[in-house]
Amino acid sequence: MKLNTSSALDATIIALASLSSQGRAQNSNAGNVTSGVEPCALISALAAANVTTFEADIAMACLQSVPVDVAGDVDLIDGIKVLFQFQSTLPYLSDPPPGYLYSAVDILASLDAIQADVQAGIYTNDYDVQMDIYNLVVSAYDFHFNWVPDLVTVFNWNRQGSLLSLSSDGLSLPDVYDSSDVKALAASNPSNYPPSPVTSINGVDTESWLNEFAAANPWDHDPDANYNNVMVNIPLLSNSGGGPQGEGAYTHGMVYQGNDTVLTFANGTTRQVYTYAKTHCDLSGVTDGASFFQQCTTPPLTSPSPSQNGTEPAPPPATLENSYTPVPTDLGLPSPLFYPSPFLIASDGSIARYFPPDQPDLVVVSSMTLGPLDNIEFQNAFRSILATANAAGKTKLIMDIRGNGGGTVADGFDWFTQLFPGQIPWGATNLAAFGLTNALGEVATSLVAGGNVSGQALGALKDFDVMADLNIVLTQYDSWSDFYGPVTTHGGNFTNVKRNNLSDVSSLGMPVYGFGNDTKPQPQTFDPDNIVILSDAFCGSTCAVFAEMMKTQAGVHAITV
Fold first, then answer.
1. How far apart are CA 262 and CA 271, in angstroms?
2. Are 376 and 454 in the same domain?
3. C-alpha distances in angstroms, 437 versus 3, 104, 145, 447?
4. Which residue stretches belong to region Disordered (predicted)?
5. pTM
6. Do 387 and 454 share a structural domain?
7. Which residue in 96, 149, 90, 160 sits closest to 125, CA to CA?
8. Which site from 235, 280, 322, 364 is most exposed, i.e. has the minimal number of CB atoms within 10 Å?
9. Is 402 within 8 Å of 558 (Cβ atoms)?
10. Same structural domain for residues 421 and 438?
């Protein structure tokens, strides 16, 4: 990204600047409280006075005043240990393969150690117990494997301002800038306002501090991806409507960072950045840590969403599949936030197509999610994009999946089969094999085979109904035990491999092109050598499945920025 900011980046920075209006002013009295005041009572009193942001240190003091619940924590950890045995990557986390970039971690043994410390009276408050469990799970660096304790979610920590990584000319290595500097640059002549890079944070050189912070506030299993996630991410900003996720982990996080952060700049100046806490909890009646815990971590009982007679809500009207047909390109469609006007866009903004005017043979497909509101509309939009590109003589494709955290697996398969008709996408998985997996599989397979479940219950049992899936050579397993195995490898027990039955619409929830009744003739629009995937390393879940198939099956190259 060049430092000469575009109007889109200008708009982004201006949006981020709204954060600077929140914070210290309304809490100026909080730092004057004597040490004898209960911190949770203080926060309750501030909330009663309509204060909505709190000094980070006082919020942390409140959390650390919650007494340890020894019996409850012991039971909690026992339950977590059972639940975590379903995580099939545990043997690989404790003994990582070559090339793994983070440290090994034995999740179950570490839980035992935390539990032993609880029983030994090592902990002085319950927040520290929960935070140690949270940090342990985070050390797996897998956003599909997570457990966020209730106390950890009561407050979130926010800094005023964000960080951006920018290159001065688009060619040289980027420097890190504070968003307020870039905002000022966007509003002035660059020659009159040369912004200064951040050279250290809290006395630590910027790169070292950011890498350490990224490792403690991760989304992904790759250090570079986690580094990116500390910064402003324009696709994520757009996908969230300018919401907090795209502002970066530096700005919004779940890990306490102190009251202030000191930025030092290359020009020798410093800036003190305020950290404040916000909460979703109604703090009425809170007087101490114990009452805070009861008020903010015990959820009210709620009724199930289906109607009282137990029937499922009626599904919305079905979207019909379209054919491989070009569509008009001059519709004057609305632009996604911070993006130019597209030539085609889904009604929920989940996928859009661009024809760059200076690249006559290029089409850019931008998608920040594979979890659209309407899967068939999403599928139709991609089909129309390909048909329109083909009719316009486009020969090159950029799949811009920056900010795409995944979604519906079948949508990822459908992208692949529409790009490469006739290919069977490779999607395979196995489960951790232990007693509960076996018991659930036997019961689920029996119930589904007997026709005793439907609707939401059927969806909930899908992963354990092996008859809905296929084996590695795409034939059906004879029974649950035929699938279960177990197979022992890398010090762990696993089931055999299963693959999705792409012809089973009821199992997938949508058709996949080339399978079932979605087999209308459709040409291959682009040669794989003329396709590039553009990513920011945030690509996860279904997005990662799609990207892996594109790389390993189709030989498509990727660029990560």
1. 6
2. no
3. 53, 25, 17, 15
4. 297-324
5. 0.88
6. no
7. 149
8. 280
9. no
10. no
Pairing verdict, β 557-560 and 531-535: parallel
Residue with tokens 């690989």: 92
Task: Tell me: pLDDT of 317 over 60.
Answer: no
HSE of 350, CA atoms in CB hemisphere, 13 A: 22
Determine if residue 170 is left, alpha or beta; phi over 0 gives left, psi from -120 to 50 gives alpha, anything else beta.
left
Residue that the structure tokens 């089931």 belong to: 495
Instruction: For the beta carbon of residue 166, count every other beta carbon within 10 angstroms.
Output: 23
Dump pLDDT digits (tens) for 420-446.
Answer: 999 999 989 999 999 999 999 999 999
Residue 178: both structure tokens together = 């504070």
Residue 329, pLDDT > 70, answer no
- Tokens representing residue 264 in the block: 């030092």
- Do 385 and 483 reside in the same domain of the chain? no
Tokens coding 11: 């708009």
Tell me which residue range forms the domain holding 168: 7-31+155-281
Phi/psi at 467 (nearest 5 deg)?
-70, -15
* End-to-end Cα separation, the chain, in angstroms: 9
Strand partners, 396: 362
Rounded distance, CA 532 to CA 60, Å? 46
**Whether 412 and 460 share a structural domain:** no
407 forms beta bridges with 370
Q: Peptide bond preceding 360: is omega within 30 degrees of 0, i.e. cis?
A: no
Q: Single out the residue of 560, 553, 510 nearest to residue 539, CA to CA.
A: 560
